[in-house]
Amino acid sequence: MSGQLEFAFDLQVRFTRAQNINDMPTGAGRGAVYVDGGSFEGPRIKGSIVPNSGGDYALFRPDGTLSFDARYMLQEEDGTLIMLYNAGFLWGRKPDTMQRLREMAFNNGPVVDPSEYYLRSQPRFETPIGRHDWLTRHVFVGFGERRADGNIQRIYSVV
Questions:
Q1: What b/e string do you get for 102-115 counting C-beta neighbours within 10 Å, with b at 16 or more?
Q2: d(CA 140, CA 59)
Q3: DSSP labels, 39-82
Q4: Which residues in the chain land under pLDDT 50?
Q5: Rounded to 5, what percent of the chain is helix, strand, coil?
Q6: Is 84 helix (H, G, I), strand (E, B) or coil?
Q7: 134: Cβ–Cβ under 8 A, 6 or more apart, which residues?
Q8: How far is the CA of 66 from the CAs of 30, 46, 60, 75, 103, in angstroms?
Q9: What is the 3-class SS of 100-141, one letter each residue?
Q10: pLDDT on residue 16
Q11: Nearest to residue 47, comparing CAs of 55, 38, 59?
Q12: Domains of the chain
């Protein structure tokens, strides 16, 4: 058995509004960032992220790992709405990386090089029957980069 990764599209998500629940009894914290917009583009698909259609709800675990669960709508150039569910992990390769990522995102701190953290995702999609329903029949993986105003992810299908 073998499988390969095939490039599906790049996804750029902008979010600037955030809320946090700190110091939960479990030792974790819960964060939410709300989608302001963005875009996506690949060989078979291109469009924009519907503003205010959802967000990314992260669990800040006591071990320093951020476990995220994002849900929002994409709109293809042809008008098709696509629901995106994206779960994954973000953690730093050095003890201070996560704090520096927070500084970058929320306090205009310096950019953190993507080699210093792990940002991977498992996107899933819901679409109507038709031109884009190939998204509902593949397993996808995403490789991400944190930006001050959101994330960029390169999404691949497992073929």
A1: bebbeeeeeebeee
A2: 22
A3: EEE-SS-EEEEPTTS-EEEEEE-TTS-EEEEEEEEEEETTS-EE
A4: none
A5: 10, 55, 30
A6: strand
A7: 44
A8: 9, 29, 5, 27, 15
A9: HHHHHHHCCCCCCCHHHEEEEEEEEEECCCCCCHHHHHCEEE
A10: 83
A11: 38
A12: 5-158 (2.40.160.20)
Place of tokens 């944190």: 146
Contact between 119 and 102 (Cβ < 8 Å)? no
Residue 156 tokens read as: 């691949």
Residue whose token pair is 């050095």: 94
pTM surpassing 0.85? yes
Nearest partner of 31 among 43, 20, 17, judged by Cα: 20
Contact assessment for residue 55 and residue 72, using Cβ atoms and an 8 Å cutoff: yes
- The pair of three-digit structure tokens given for residue 152, joined into one six-digit string: 């960029």
Residue type, 64: G
| Length of the chain counted residue by residue | 159
